[in-house]
Design goal:
Length: about 160
């Protein structure tokens, strides 16, 4: 992924195997997978963590390498269908958590100019991402403020 606020290049990562069918060794019923996804969401896990848990722990001891191949739906789609989706998309929520931590740090270390810049960049990303999600995934009236983000994180 290309870095947004630097001149450096992004780092390449590995790709998922190019396949359009679930492997034979992972023959878990789609309904079992969906119920496990909802169960993990109710325990407070984010969609990305749910995918990792299904890959590592599996359902009834059988690993699920790719939820979308096994069920035909993404983890977030399953959560939406079962009214278990989080209030904010995961990427936006994580950026807000990062901004709250950075602002806390800046309160204690006012002379840290590098992190002051990091906070500006993070809040800029939040505003851009909020524009992308506004009206669809989040409320039309949503405006990012540090106070709102801090309050949101305190609630959870």
């Amino acid at each position: 992924m290309a870095r947004m606020h630097t001149r450096r290049r992004g780092s390449s990562g590995s790709d998922k195997p190019a396949t359009d069918e679930n492997p034979e060794w992972s023959d878990v019923d789609a309904e079992d997978i969906e119920s496990r996804v909802v169960e993990l969401a109710e325990q407070g896990h984010d969609p990305s963590v749910i995918g990792l848990k299904l890959r590592d722990e599996g359902v009834k001891g059988v690993p699920v390498p790719d939820v979308k191949l096994a069920t035909g739906k993404k983890v977030t789609e399953i959560l939406e269908e079962n009214d278990a989706e989080p209030e904010f998309p995961e990427d936006l929520y994580n950026l807000m958590a990062q901004a709250v931590r950075l602002r806390e740090h800046m309160g204690e270390n006012g002379q840290d100019h590098q992190n002051k810049r990091a906070l500006q960049n993070t809040e800029s990303k939040i505003r851009r991402l909020a524009d992308y999600y506004r009206g669809d995934e989040i409320d039309e009236e949503f405006t990012y403020t540090h106070e709102y983000a801090a309050e949101l994180l305190d609630d959870e």
